[in-house]
Amino acid sequence: MEWEVVIGLETHAQLQTKSKIFSGSSTAFGAAPNVQANAVDIALPGVLPVLNRAAVECAIRLGLAVGGRIAARSIFARKNYFYPDLPKGYQISQYEIPVISGGSLAIIVGQGEQGYEKTVQLTRAHLEEDAGKSLHEDFHGKSGIDLNRAGTPLLEIVTEPDMRSSAEAVAYAKALHALVQWIGICDGNMQEGSFRCDANVSVRPKGSEKLGTRREIKNLNSFRFMQQAIDYEVHWQIATLEDGGRIEQATVLFDPATGETRAMRSKEDAQDYRYFPDPDLLPLEIIPEWIARVKAGMPELPAEMKLRFAPDYGLSAYDAAMLTVSRETAAYFEDCVAAAGRENAKLCANWLMGELAARLNKEGGEIAAAPISPLQLAALVRRIADGTISNKIGREVFDALWNGDAQDVDELISARGLKQITDGGAIEALIAEVLAANPKSVEEFRAGKEKAFNALVGQLMKATKGKANPQQVNELLRRKLSG
């Protein structure tokens, strides 16, 4: 039987506010346990929550960025459950009327010719507070509770079950991760728990419209673990069904050490949480003027920038999409083009998406910390464009810049004697030598074997240590052989 994978993601983005969502406690990371938990956070009797305006503005920014409906009036609710790190015995969240409904996010899945674009529909985004944290290490067999995170503002962003593979889920998570940083509502630090994803995974017979029973993989805090967890869960569910078993709705955890998911508890439904409106909080009202003020302070969004890049810089839609995957990438590209000249925009894009992206990916670095600055890459691009060096020699220059062996492109080219040979007379003299030394290849070419021509080109480039202009070599060699 052929199976179809169905995935939906729930993402908790910690909002970049200085204080918590319902109290004045700091949200700074790394403090000693329980020093950033005040009377509201630990739920002392008689205390009342006060909503943080900055958290609401973060939600508005996301709503504007994804084209969602920003509710004129939304409600906070109590989500009731018991856990040691939840002091009140309930979490303040939103249920029936969230602050954001609908919206969508365009993603790019894969790379190059195999890459494709897809739009993931969003169900909702709602404000809520985080719980504390249970600590199970170094307590002599006991557990400790750190309430520093209790009350930290979160925006939970929920998708429709639109994704059909782990690759699509990861592409969506990466796009959302970039977006929340782009609009300045979340720092995206996955190691510190600022951006966490839960994946709802199910399988169904291909062609069926009925959704299968889902299992929720909790707290995925890396894209690599997300892909591994979903792939394992899909394989496990299919194997279980094909062996005649049943899938039970459950919450599961992923163990990176084994690469497996394991059931943590049976999955709760909304009725298990006994949601009801929080009597201590008034309905949240967002007037049009408030939305307008937030919109006025928004940066140019990725979708808008993508539409601008294609005509402004003569790029394909795919190139424009790749160059706007993050605000840092887009800024690097525009700085590079400003220095290299708009006529070299495509060459800048090729080097950024090719050599630079490959090196960053290999070394696990971010573009903001790349050893090669936009100005250095622009200088390299200019020297390739004006014929001073070839593309091949350009990679040697790139390596030297990356490794810190040089800082100035022109000085490096001069010091290493890398300038391209463009003198026609010198190239013709070399061609004569190569043809005299390779009579067999000459005969084979004249007999119609194109591979012999490439062999002769290779000999010429070897003789010049790659410094001859490839286009001139091809033109002059072909002319000589045809004469």
List the helices and strands and how they pair.
Elements: E1 3-14, H1 53-66, E2 69-70, E3 73-74, E4 77-80, E5 90-93, E6 100-101, E7 104-109, E8 116-129, E9 133-135, E10 144-146, E11 153-159, H2 166-182, E12 195-205, E13 215-220, H3 223-242, E14 250-255, E15 260-266, E16 276-277, E17 284-285, H4 288-296, H5 302-313, H6 317-323, H7 327-340, H8 345-363, H9 374-385, H10 391-402, H11 409-416, H12 424-437, H13 439-446, H14 450-463, H15 470-482
Parallel strand pairs: 13-14
Antiparallel strand pairs: 1-11, 1-12, 2-6, 3-17, 4-5, 4-16, 6-8, 7-8, 8-11, 9-10, 12-13, 14-15
Helix pairs in contact: 2-3, 5-6, 7-8, 7-9, 8-9, 9-10, 12-14, 12-15, 13-14, 14-15
Description:
The chain is an alpha+beta fold. The protein has helices spanning 53-66, 166-182, 223-242, 288-296, 302-313, 317-323, 327-340, 345-363, 374-385, 391-402, 409-416, 424-437, 439-446, 450-463, 470-482, and strands at 3-14, 69-70, 73-74, 77-80, 90-93, 100-101, 104-109, 116-129, 133-135, 144-146, 153-159, 195-205, 215-220, 250-255, 260-266, 276-277, 284-285. The model has no long low-confidence stretch (mean pLDDT 92). Strands 1, 2, 6, 7, 8, 11, 12, 13, 14 and 15 form a ten-stranded mixed beta sheet that branches. Strands 5-4-16 form a three-stranded antiparallel beta sheet, with no helix packed on it. A two-stranded antiparallel sheet has the order 3-17. The termini are far apart. Helix 7 (327-340) crosses helix 9 (374-385) and helix 8 crosses helix 9 (374-385). Helix 3 links the parallel strand 13 (215-220) and strand 14. The chain contains 15 helices and 17 strands.
